[in-house]
């Protein structure tokens, strides 16, 4: 991954070198914790994906599993299942090994059979799989690193207890466990302290924003696109510095650059981004003027065949709605969110419509019960018309929970049962409880609904 011209590649190389220097030489290290900041999560995900390919830079061989953590009783079983499915699908790995005449004698079917046995201790089985996989590797002198990067963790304390269970059972020889913790919260200090003799915590100072800025400003300095990216960087800096006059200077410069480019899409985007930055200063009058102009320009661009204007139009309606909401004009805000939903569907961005409706009905929930119910119903009925994989990462679970509550209040038990069956297939058992837990968590943090997704 040595690429002196790629700032992100350089950061990943720094991460790799940290492991090589502080973990690789020490056989006794079994538990490796990366201490990261939330905004670095995607970078470390990229690091893991790279290490899962032949281009990885570590001497350890990683098995990367992204399985969500729900509870300590079932997590090992879910990891084993995901590992087996991934291994069976990885035909490229098998072909690469055969092409290089490398022997890899590991029977995945044996573990499939054991997984089906109700009496199997899945914690023990997971460790057994790690041991046999490591010994079957073409070079059994290398360490195997079980790299855990769950998409979500229901409870950090339970997650720590699950790791502790594996460590108490005993990780096999030449097997390590890699996991992640937030540097500011340090949820797993107690765990690493308990196993201090085999643990190592790694932290790397990474200027991720600096790397992103280098990429954004790279290219021909006379190219309008490069010039506008530089304007966005400077606008963002102005927000950080709370310098409104400076923001206006760079915002206007961005408008001038994109207008000269001749692209309606770029010109409209400049208006929307400039307006978005101004939310930090509550400049609502200017925000509305910019959004109206940007929307008009985007519609002109769309009429002349610039399909890239569609997402800009959708975003414009969403920003207008948020602006009205922040000014306590809730009925108008709801109208605009619903408009955004309808436009999203018209332009082929169905999942975005769900978020727009969700935001819209939450705005007027306390002031207009009938309209609230109507929007929730419309959102749910549209959501179930989409393919399950399209709504998995949307706010559909929250819409479904709200629709369930409405049906329950109306004593429509048949519809409640239908909702529950449908959502259980998509989100699993206890989906409503998870939604309510998340609501309570967000309320404790005093976040507005605009920050939930």
Question: What order do the helices and strands come in, and which of them pair?
Answer:
Blueprint: H1 7-22, E1 31-36, H2 41-51, E2 61-65, H3 75-89, H4 91-99, H5 108-116, H6 122-136, E3 144-148, H7 156-169, E4 175-182, H8 189-194, E5 199-202, H9 208-216, H10 224-240, H11 244-261, H12 264-278, H13 284-303, H14 309-326, H15 330-346, H16 350-363, H17 369-383, H18 388-391, H19 396-409, H20 413-427, H21 431-444
Parallel strand pairs: 1-4, 1-5, 2-3, 3-4
Question: Can you put this structure into words, describing what you see?
Answer:
With 453 residues, the chain is an alpha/beta fold. It has 2 domains: 7-209, 3-Layer(aba) Sandwich (Rossmann fold); 215-388, Serine Threonine Protein Phosphatase 5, Tetratricopeptide repeat. The chain has helices at 7-22, 41-51, 75-89, 91-99, 108-116, 122-136, 156-169, 189-194, 208-216, 224-240, 244-261, 264-278, 284-303, 309-326, 330-346, 350-363, 369-383, 388-391, 396-409, 413-427, 431-444; strands at 31-36, 61-65, 144-148, 175-182, 199-202. The protein has a 5-stranded parallel sheet, with helices on both faces. β3 (144-148), α7 and β4 (175-182) form a beta-alpha-beta unit. The protein is globular, with a radius of gyration of 26 Å. It comes from Aquimarina rubra. This is DUF4034 domain-containing protein.
Under the CATH scheme, which architecture of the largest domain would be assigned? 3-Layer(aba) Sandwich
| H and E order | HEHEHHHHEHEHEHHHHHHHHHHHHH
The CATH class designation of the largest domain is: Alpha Beta
The whole-angstrom Rg is: 26 Å
Q: By helix and strand content, what is the structural category?
A: alpha/beta
Q: Provide a count of the helices.
A: 21
Coarse shape: globular
Low-confidence stretches: 444-453
Domain count: 2
- CATH fold type of the largest domain: Rossmann fold
Helix coverage percent of residues? Answer: 55-70%
Question: DSSP strand (E) fraction?
Answer: 5-15%
Q: Summarize the main sheet.
A: 5 strands, parallel
In spatial order, strands of the major sheet run 2-3-4-1-5
Give the distance, in angstroms, between the N- and C-terminal Cα atoms. Answer: 33 Å
Summed over residues and divided by their number, the pLDDT gives a mean of: 87
Write down how many β-strands occur, each being a DSSP E stretch of 2 or more residues. 5
